[in-house]
Each structure stands twice: as C-alpha cells, then as structure tokens.
Write a structure and sequence with these properties.
It is built from 5 helices and 26 strands. With 270 residues, the chain is an alpha/beta fold. The protein has 2 domains: 2-64, Tetrahydrodipicolinate-N-succinyltransferase, N-terminal domain (Tetrahydrodipicolinate-N-succinyltransferase, Chain A, domain 1, Orthogonal Bundle); 90-248, Hexapeptide repeat proteins (UDP N-Acetylglucosamine Acyltransferase, domain 1, 3 Solenoid), CATH 2.160.10.10. The strands form 5 sheets. Strands 5-8-11-14-17-20-25-26-22-23 form a 10-stranded mixed sheet, with helices on one face. The protein has a 6-stranded parallel sheet with strand order 6-9-12-15-18-21, with no helix packed on it. Helix 1 crosses helix 2 (20-35) and helix 1 crosses helix 3 (52-64). The longest helix has 16 residues, at 20-35. The chain is globular and about 60 Å long. The model has no long low-confidence stretch (mean pLDDT 95).
C-alpha cells in the first residue's frame, strides 16, 4: 500500500520523479514485477483484475532511466532498459537471439525461442514463445501456452485503465496470429493460423443453429479460424474480418492429445 501511495502521488505530480523516495519506490515495483511477486493483472473469482497503479509505475520507470550503451559480441544496443539475466538460475531455456527486458516475469520451464518479451509481461511455467513471436508490455501469458512462430501479443500501457492482453492456461496460438488491445483467450482455446483478435473484435460461435457473438473474448477450449461478416457502409457493403468458433477442444488430462484431436477434427492449420 505504501508503494502504491507513492506511485499515485508521482503520477499526479511528475516533479516527484526527482525525489529519492519516489525513484526507490518505482525501482522496487519493477523488481517485484521481474520476480513475479507483483502482476499487472491477476485472475479472480469474477474474472481478471487490473492493477492500474502498477502500470503507472512501469510508465514512470522510463523517465527515471538514462540511456546506456550495451554491447553483446558484435551487437550494440542503446536503450534505457536493462535486459533480463540469470536464466540458468531461473530454469528458463533461452535460444539466441531471444531478448527479454528486465521487469518481465518468466517462470521456470519457459522456453524462449528467438523472440522478444517486453517489460511488465508475465509468462507462466511450461510455456513456449516460438520463433519471432512478441510478448508485449504487461501481457499475461498462462501455464503451458504455445505461442507459435510470428505471433504478435500486443502490449498495453496507456491508457492505464485499459486491460492487458490475457492468454489463459493451455491455449494454443497459431502462426502469425495477432492478439491485441485487451483481448482475452480462454483456457485451452486454439487459434488457427492468422486469426486476429482485438478488444473490439467480433468472435462468432457458428457451431449451433444460431450464431453467438462475443467481443474480444475467446471462450475456453474454443477452436477458432479467421472469418468475415458483411457490413454496410455509405459506399456499399463490404466484408469485415472477424474470428469464427468452429468447434470445441475436448476436455482431457493430455493436452497434446486434445490439441491434435481438435486440429484434425476441425481441419485447422496452425
């Protein structure tokens, strides 16, 4: 509560960013984020709760940092942020040239293929971030998730009241999918290749007699492919992108088996 109070005062009065106590508090919050003891958002019985004050601390962290040059072999970087380190002790596998910023929590058993993870993100155990995937600021990635090649998980810092992207436990996100703007993907859901989900996207369940629409949310164990619907504009009628739920992944203790069955039965490419 003391940290939160200091952050809120600095948010209202940026002159406090020169104050030693404020700087210490901001650094403490980023350290807690890095170690996973604080999260930008966490699951509750009612859904997910967003800690806006922690997002404020992340935003305030940038102006108190100074630009520095860092060299890694023949590569040179010029940035304000430190990179995450100590992967061996954390039990995280990191394949060159994967990069994660300090202030991102990466749990034991995570595999980072050549990819990028930004500050404030939370990646839980057993998850794979595949080649050229991006995990944006404050994104929340659950346990045993697979982010396939080229997946873009968007970052959300401002406005501070905006919800981060949430990918829940056991979800499979297919190649070149884009999930941004506070979208949420439920547990064990499967997104086929090239699905785009934003906070305002239509996600339409077409498995029953009548379509059921969701907004920016993919229900648990849904199997999803790219789709479109007809929308009227002043210049005429045009197809607008959406996501279609075409099936359900069966409940199973063996996640790999249930995934393979869902892909095969629904003829989904990932």
């Amino acid at each position: 509560m003391e940290l939160q109070s200091i952050i809120e005062r600095a948010w209202a009065d940026r002159s406090l960013l020169k104050d030693a106590q404020t700087i210490e508090a901001i650094n403490a919050v980023i350290e807690e984020l890095d170690k996973g003891r604080l999260r930008v958002a966490q699951p509750t019985e009612a859904g997910w709760s967003v800690n806006e004050w922690i997002k404020k601390a992340v935003i305030l962290y940038f102006p108190i940092r100074e630009m520095q040059v860092a060299e890694v072999g023949i590569f040179e970087f010029h940035d304000k942020m430190k990179l995450k380190s100590g992967y061996k002790e954390l039990g995280v596998r990191v394949v060159p040239p994967a990069v994660a910023r300090y202030g991102a929590f990466i749990s034991k058993g995570v595999i980072l293929m050549p990819s990028y993870t930004n500050i404030g993100a939370y990646i839980d155990s057993g998850t794979m971030v595949d080649t050229w995937a991006t995990v944006g600021s404050c994104a929340q990635i659950g346990k045993d998730v697979h982010l396939s090649g080229g997946v873009g998980i968007g970052g959300v810092l401002e406005p501070v009241q905006a919800a981060p992207v949430i990918i829940e436990d056991g979800a499979f996100i297919g190649s070149r999918c884009i999930v941004v703007e506070g979208a949420r993907v439920g547990k064990q859901a499967v997104l086929g290749a090239n699905v785009v989900i934003t906070g305002g996207s239509k996600v339409i369940d077409v498995t029953g007699d009548k379509p059921i629409e969701y907004k920016g949310y993919v229900p648990e164990r849904s199997v999803v492919i790219p789709g479109s619907y007809l929308k009227k504009f002043g210049a005429g009628d045009y197809n607008v992108s959406c996501a279609l739920i075409i099936g359900k992944r069966k409940e199973s203790t063996d996640l790999k088996t249930s995934l393979n069955d869902a892909l095969r039965e629904n003829e989904v490419s990932v």
